[in-house]
Amino acid sequence: MARTRRRRIRVDGVDYRWTVRHADPGHVMVRVWHAATRGAGLEVLVAFDDPWLNFGPIITAPSDRVAAVFALEPVTPRLVAALIQAGVAAGWPAHGDGGPRRLVLDRSRERLEPAPGTTTGGGAETRVRVTAAGP
Fold it and tell me: What residue ranges do the domains of the chain occupy?
């Protein structure tokens, strides 16, 4: 198995580290933690259909349907920054202790929700809008 590269990112004046790993055939797991304290991590499941694994179905699908059927947009630093901001807005204690905060980014990459079976403070689900729009 390939070694995971730890990347650096600065968001709102705070340094973080992040990695991306394969989770299952249709998803990758983005893990983020505070660079200095390595406090509670943020784990976000992101839809991604590997183009190499799906090459046949992608090239045989109608071109106007490929984007609707497959999640081919890779995880970029801009998306990671948006995930960090959304995680903080949802109450992720980047500097805090405890286990990781597990969230799922919907296929449209617009809404961050608790992973199935998890709840946030007091049992209420938190939904946060993610915006990773470019300049």
Answer: 7-129
d(CA 135, CA 126): 28
CA–CA distance, 114 with 101 (Å, rounded to integer): 8
Written as one string, the DSSP assignment of 63-131 is: TTTHHHH---PPP-HHHHHHHHHHHHHTT--TTS-SSPEEEEE-TTS-EEEEPTT--BGGGB---EE--
Contact 52, 74 (CB under 8 A): no
101 touches 41 (CB < 8 A): yes
What is the Cα–Cα distance from 17 to 84, expressed in whole angstroms?
A: 11
Q: How far apart are the first and last CA of the chain?
A: 36
Backbone dihedral region of 98: left (phi > 0), alpha (psi from -120 to 50 degrees) or beta?
left
Dihedral of CA 96/89/77/59: which sign?
Answer: positive
Give tens-digit pLDDT for 64-103: 766 666 666 788 999 999 999 988 888 888 777 777 888 8
State the DSSP H helix or E strand holding residue 19, giving kind and residue range, or none if neither. Answer: strand 14-24
CA 19 to chain centre: 10
